[in-house]
Amino acid sequence: MRVESKGSEVQEPAPGAVMRALQLIPGILLCGAVTVVSLGVQAAEERAFDHPYIEALVVAILLGMAVRTAWQPSERWRSGIAFSAKQLLEVAVMLLGASISFAAIVASGYLLIGAIAVTVVIMLAVSFGLSRMLGLKPKLSILIACGNSICGNSAIAAVAPVIEADGDDIASSISFTAILGVLMVLGLPLLIPLLQLSATQYGILAGLTVYAVPQVLAATVPAGFVSTQIGTLVKLVRVLMLGPIVLGLSLLVARRRKLGAGGAKTVSISPFKLVPWFIIGFLALAALRSLQLVPDVAIAPVTRIAAVLTVVSMAALGLGVDVRVLSTVGGRVTAAVTLSLMLLLGLSIGLVHFFR
């Protein structure tokens, strides 16, 4: 139906588009239900231990996998699950840009920033090469390298849609990375007396090796305020490395597509096609935040929305995972993640001795 008004026409939404939107609802609601339970588990951990040892996004993917193991979703559910796993995750990644301030990063000192950047680049190459040597697929190797080198689950979630990784690869890398992340939180404080680390050194070590920002807090709070402050700052610099890494991967993927379609021809490609829209949004929000055009009062709710959407996406990924596939790569993924983390820890221990 069209409504005409003095030479102009207002086109009503196509029935097909409305039907497609309605078809998403069951799957989205299912992912939302898994998310509510996962957030409840994290809240219970926070009440019991003051901080979560296993974050809600990890609970969501494991719970989603458990549901999928017991029940095979029909076509009625799949479109909404797929939408939650991809589009909602892209929105979450974009919103994270609002929490990044370039000015705060620069204020930490160029020597420390350079050391963090070099560590991230080295470990990206080492982790990827190690994963490939163990026979893992390129996309899974990229996810493990980014998760280990940058910020664990968040990096995996951000990189996955750029390289078009499938749900099985994402679940594999997140599951084993999450387990080692918890072990790092529990075991890292033991290195303070063993290596006679100062508060500054331990903060840098925690920021370089622990995966998630909440886990950095959990690992450094027992060591005091100085370690917590420095650890959080170092961790934020690592997180900031995610932008250039994802940008580079998106350009690489676009180049491979062009070559696959016949690279001999000169094709004009828009930057918006080379770089995913949500990465452009991420960088734009980070720039606005750095220019103080995003008010401080908006940061907390925007960050919270991004966190919840990420949990919803992880629930969707879990619901789309076939556990039988995980069993075929479990040993190799565990070896790749463990060895990469041990190498990162060794490199970081050597580095902190320059920051007394």
TrEMBL record:
Coiled coil: none annotated. Keywords: Cell membrane, Membrane, Transmembrane, Transmembrane helix. It holds the Pfam family Cons_hypoth698. InterPro entries: UPF0324_pro. The chain crosses the membrane at residues 21-41, 53-71, 83-104, 110-130, 142-163, 175-195, 202-224, 236-254, 274-292, 298-321, 333-355. It is found in: Cell membrane. It is a multi-pass membrane protein. Signal peptide: none annotated. The keyword Cell membrane applies. Belongs to the UPF0324 family. PANTHER family: INNER MEMBRANE PROTEIN YEIH-RELATED, UPF0324 INNER MEMBRANE PROTEIN YEIH. This is Sulfate exporter family transporter. It comes from Bradyrhizobium jicamae.
